[in-house]
Write a structure and sequence with these properties.
single chain, about 750 residues, five-stranded mixed beta sheet, 19 helices, disordered N terminus
């Protein structure tokens, strides 16, 4: 493989320069105009190897790699074009044809609505056509006429006397009306159109949906009902165009007892009898909810797409042939909306991703060229956002692929590989630990050495990626851990001040919301080796035998831990009336602070955790992503380029859509996250209530927190284990207080001595 070669001398220097230039282009590709920098990015014609990295920088025309049996010729977001008049845009339907895709839209303008269709051809030509001339009242559904390039429109008409009926229009590819008919009042008897197409013979196929299930109709060109099929299912079937111009349906197969979907069925309705003609069963072992789409390649072969890629196989689902794998082409589809094969064996499809609908046109690969692929070990909790990052990276650099491998925490195999200098190039260090393995990681200071980039980032959050003064890892998001109060006069407290506040309130129902005694001690009195109540690493001494630590043990033992498990926003009342002193909060996203502001109003005080020199708020970053130090240099260069791409505006905006993403490390994206929050939700009894967020106040408080916050720090694992073990023995009654103090003093001081 290319990445395993030993590259030296002038060739290496040349590649490094190319990578550096490409990185500059990537980071300067501008993300402050919507998604312009992303959707207009592409690679130019390449040799297929990293020899010419500069040629893969952002350009004007998207260029796919040629790794698979099929190669993308065109891949564009299918977004409606808004007219110059102001008005909300709503998407009504999509249509996919052999050489183009269409989106039907409604623009809601005060006093009127305008329906239009926007067309993009596989050559990249856009056009928009207003449908006013057809005297439409309320367009309900629209779809294609298979094989002709025309469209069928279903419009809801009113007769002026309180009755309504459906009008069907067919138009050719030039949008000239070729047919029209009205259905009688009240048809269909129940339900409304959910999908429409016309086949090559001119018959119209319609799916309607109601509370009692769905119906499928086949109508001739004059509106006569040729077939009617009813199914008591609440899941819409999908109209599917076939290779021969006919139309089938794809629907889910459900278990009779449970109603659970277990597979799929591709079928037709016989216009003469209304009976089903089964074309193929979608096997349960390859069926995926909301992600699988089937059609026919020919009468003996399935063409289908799932969450991994595009396949061709027999009608039993066996012998699948991979035609196009999403990850290798920078895509992460969330659903497939339409798929069809052309007479020239081209393939067209519509797919949805985090950016919306996209039109992809594929042709058989004429000549495969090599790409460069690197691997990344990712924990399951981080997989969602890194799929997005990897997809965007390959879209910008088609010949580079970051393949994600989901790995379990404490995977012995992974650590064995890394220690041996092998394994993935990129590592989510949640899987391995970070600071204790400095020798395994490649320094990454180059990643931030771009003009203006440090000014765009929240550098405090990136401190998590440092070991000493060297950057070994990149983080993409962060949150704040702090302590709030509502009835305390103080604006600050150190450890002793915190203990004094507790002592001054003998009638407290509870001090805080710590889940147990050990959590109380570790959260409030231990903030790293250089800021804690009982250890002085510089002097090598401890204070476990002090009166203060004995008071800490007493308070920890008195916690009403059972009540603490039930606390949430309900604690607001206890904080206000002083029956609870303070509350630990993890502000994972803007809404979390908005909730407390709503509950506590002006009494909310963001005081912070007690510390040696006063209170602190802590910024907690995601686990860093590191690069394996002993990876081939070429792999490391691509890894650095990937990490740079994570920090771009577009990638951060896309990552922020993942449920596990907190606050962005980019200042501009973080501010947008703050201003996007309008309402907050909270429980009152069994009801979910909404309240308006004071966005300006929330932004002001968050900015103040961010300015004051310091990166979170932890005790070394070995030291934390010692303290936790002895505290567990004490609080479980295994040892006495004096024994616990003696054990802690001796063991911790021995540990400190061994570290000198």
């Amino acid at each position: 493989m290319e990445g395993d070669k030993d590259i030296t001398g002038g060739s290496m220097k040349k590649r490094f320069i190319y990578l550096f230039l490409a990185a500059l282009l990537l980071l300067c590709s501008g993300c402050h105009n919507g998604s312009h920098g992303e959707k207009d990015s592409a690679g130019k014609e390449e040799s297929g190897t990293p020899e010419t990295v500069d040629e893969q920088a952002a350009g004007e025309v998207w260029q796919d790699n040629t790794l698979d049996l099929y190669t993308g010729q065109f891949n564009r977001p299918l977004k409606p074009v808004q007219s110059e008049e102001d008005g909300e845009i709503r998407t009504l339907d999509y249509a996919l044809e052999a050489s183009r895709a269409t989106v039907f839209v409604r623009q809601l303008i005060p006093g009127e609505s305008q329906d239009s269709l926007n067309i993009v051809t596989r050559d990249g030509e856009w056009s928009s056509r207003n449908l006013k001339e057809y005297d439409l009242n309320l367009l309900e559904s629209a779809g294609k006429i298979c094989g002709s390039g025309g469209y069928v429109l279903v419009d809801l008409q009113f007769d002026g006397e309180g009755s309504s009926f459906y009008r069907f229009l067919t138009v050719d590819e030039n949008l000239k009306v070729t047919g029209s008919f009205d259905m009688e009042e009240g048809w269909p008897e129940e339900g409304s159109p959910r999908g429409v197409m016309a086949d090559g013979l001119g018959n119209i196929h319609l799916v309607t949906m109601s509370f009692s299930g769905w119906k499928y109709y086949v109508l001739d060109s004059q509106g006569e009902i040729l077939a009617e099929v009813t199914e008591p299912s609440y899941d819409d079937p999908v109209l599917v165009s076939l290779y021969d111009g006919s139309i089938a349906l794809y629907s889910h197969v459900e278990e009779e007892d449970t109603g659970q979907a277990t597979g799929g069925l591709l079928w037709k309705a016989d216009p003469a009898s209304g009976k089903k003609e089964i074309l193929g069963n979608v096997p349960a072992d390859i069926w995926v909810w909301d992600m699988l789409y089937f059609t026919l390649w020919d009468e003996h072969t399935f063409l289908y797409a799932d969450k991994e890629g595009l396949y061709r196989g027999d009608l039993t689902g066996g012998n699948p042939e991979l035609l196009y794998e999403w990850v290798r082409h920078g895509m992460q589809p969330q659903s497939i909306e339409d798929l069809q094969v052309g007479e020239d064996q081209s393939i067209s499809l519509l797919y949805k991703d985090v950016d919306g609908m996209n039109y992809l046109y594929l042709e058989p690969t004429a000549e495969q060229r090599e790409i460069h692929e690197i691997t990344m070990a990712v924990s399951s909790g981080q997989m969602g956002k890194y799929k997005v990052y990897a997809a965007r990276f390959t879209k910008m650099y088609p010949n580079y692929v970051v393949r994600l491998e989901e790995t379990e925490y404490n995977d012995t195999r992974l650590m064995t590989e890394l220690i041996a200098g092998k394994g993935p190039v990129l590592i989510d260090t949640f899987l391995t630990g970070f600071t204790q393995h400095e020798e395994l990681w490649e320094p990454l200071d180059q990643v931030l050495e771009q003009d203006g980039l440090p000014d765009e980032l929240i550098l405090k959050a990136l401190e998590r990626g440092k070991i000493g003064e060297t950057l070994y890892g990149i983080v993409d998001d962060w949150y704040i851990e702090t302590v709030i109060t509502a009835s305390v006069d103080r604006d600050d407290w150190d450890y002793d001040g915190f203990l004094e506040e507790i002592a001054a309130r003998p009638r407290l129902d509870n001090i805080c919301n710590a889940r147990d005694s050990i959590s109380f001690i570790s959260s409030f009195f231990i903030h790293g080796l250089n800021d804690n109540y009982m250890v002085d690493p510089g002097e090598g001494v401890t204070y476990f035998d002090s009166d203060g630590f004995r008071r800490i043990l007493h308070y920890a033992g008195e916690l009403d831990n059972e009540d603490n498990r039930g606390y949430g926003l309900e604690a607001a009342g206890a904080l206000k009336d002083g029956s609870m002193l303070c509350y630990e909060v993890s502000l994972l996203n803007p809404e979390d602070l908005g909730q407390w502001q709503t509950q506590l109003g002006d009494s909310l005080k963001l005081i912070g955790y007690p510390g040696r020199d006063g209170a602190h708020h802590y910024i907690v970053s995601s686990e860093p992503v590191a690069v394996r130090a002993k990876a081939p240099e070429e792999d490391k260069q691509i890894a650095r380029l990937f990490l740079q791409s994570i920090l771009t505006y577009d990638s951060q905006c896309a990552g922020a859509l993942d449920i596990g993403f907190h606050m962005s490390v980019r200042k501009d994206v973080f501010e947008e996250q703050l201003m996007e929050m309008t309402f907050t939700s909270f429980y009152e009894g069994f009801d979910i209530l909404k309240a308006m967020i004071d966005r300006e106040r929330m932004k002001e408080d968050y900015m103040a927190l961010l300015e004051q916050a310091v990166p979170v720090s932890y005790l070394p694992r070995e030291l934390l284990d010692i303290i936790t073990e002895e505290l567990e023995n004490y609080f479980s009654g295994v040892i006495t207080e004096e024994q616990a103090i003696d054990h802690l003093k001796n063991r911790v001081e021995l540990y400190l001595m061994e570290q000198k």
